[in-house]
Amino acid sequence: MIRTAVLADRPAIVRMARDFHAAANMPVAFDAAYAAAVAGAYIADADKLCLVLDRGGPAGVLAAHAYVHLLAPVLAADELMWWVDPGHRGLAAMRMLSAYEDWARSRGCALIGIATPPNDQRAVALYRRRGFSAAGAHFSKTI
Fold it and tell me: How many domains does the chain contain in total?
């Protein structure tokens, strides 16, 4: 089942955020307390979304937010994190993406964004099939 996260899901969301952080090879240290605070904000704020894939407990999370785009006076939605535990990947992930799209549409967003790790051609192909197009590449550097 895909459902809106509740505060009781925070420990599982923090665990999945840690797994996401490691899989994405983030160049900064993971901070569990900060991740818990962010999860709480995404659960509580109407302009934010936090979905969980519930398989007898959270096994996936998709967090996103809506905002006024900086380059045009339109609402946009952007994904912060999308993680599904390896043993639960499959069609449920597509239902999570659909729920994200529905939420963005219900908020009046004109644009919806989603990211992928570098060179993940399976994700790129999936996003293209779902109507997404590349909008550039995001790079980062620790300083």
Answer: 1
